[in-house]
Amino acid sequence: YEKNSLYQYISVIEDTVKKERYVRNQKKEYAQGGIYLNAPDKLLFEFTQMGFVALPFLDSDPKEVLFVGLGAGAMPRYFSARYPDAVIDVAEIDPDMVTVAQKYFYFKENERMKVHVDDGRLFVKRTKKKYDWIVLDAYQNDYIPFHLTTLEFLKEVKSKLKDGGIVVANITSSYRTKFFDSM
User: Fold this and answer.
1) Radius of gyration of the chain from Cα atoms?
2) What does the longest C-alpha to C-alpha distance in the chain come to?
3) pLDDT, tens digit, for every residue of 60-114?
4) 79-106 in b/e burial notation, b at 16+ Cβ within 10 A?
5) Strand, helix or coil at 155?
6) Neighbour tally for 128: CB within 10 Å
7) For 125-160, how does the pLDDT look when each residue is reduced to its tens digit (9 = 90+)?
8) Catalytic pick among 89, 137, 142, 181
9) DSSP code of residue 84
C-alpha cells in the first residue's frame, strides 16, 4: 500500500521472510511501526517495548492514558489488551494513518480507546483531562515535528499529568544532532 497523505508519504511493506509488516516513510529504511504477522499482539520494535518500562514507576495501574501519535497502533493496542479497565485517548493528526493502522495492523477503536484526529499539540492544549501516563510518539517521516519538541509543549504536557503521572517520549533517531541531544 502506498499513499501521499496530506502530512506524509505512507507505505505498508511486508517482509515475507521475516514474516513482518511495516508502515514506513519515504526513506523506506525507517519504520514508524510494525507487527509480526504470526504474532500481531507482540511488540516488534525495541522503541515500542521501551515505552512500557515506565509503567512500574506508577503507584497504581494507569486508568487514563494518552498516546500522541498512532503509527501502526501497536502500542495503544498492546496496552489496551493488558489494561482492560484503562481509558485511552490517541491524538493522531493524519486520518490516513488511522485508516492504515485499522486496515493493515489490526488496530480497532472501542468504548475505552478513542482516536482523536487532531494535532497532538492542539489536543493536549484543549483537553480538560489529566492522565496517569502520556506517551509522546509522533513522527513525520523520521523526525519529531518541531512544535512537539518545544519547552512550551512539554510544559503543557506536564500540566496534563495527574499527581504521580509519567511522560514517556520516543526520540528515536538514526543520527545524532544538536536537536536530538537537546531532546
Assistant:
1) 16
2) 46
3) 999 999 999 999 999 999 999 999 999 999 999 999 999 999 999 999 999 999 9
4) bbeebeebbbbbbbbbebbbebbeebbe
5) helix
6) 5
7) 999 999 999 999 887 666 677 788 888 989 999 999
8) 137
9) T
Whole-number Å distance between alpha carbons of 60 and 74: 23
Is-contact 86 65, C-beta < 8 A? yes
Residue 180 binned pLDDT confidence (cut-offs 50, 70, 90): low
For residue 101 the three cell numbers come to 493502522
Q: Are the CB atoms for 132 and 62 separated by under 8 Å?
A: yes
The number of beta carbons lying within 10 Å of the beta carbon of residue 126 is: 11
Identify the H or E element spanning 97: helix 95-104
Residue 164 CA to chain centroid, in angstroms? 21
Length of the chain: 183
Instruction: Verify whether residue 137 is a known catalytic residue.
Output: yes
Q: Grid coordinates representing 132?
A: 496517569
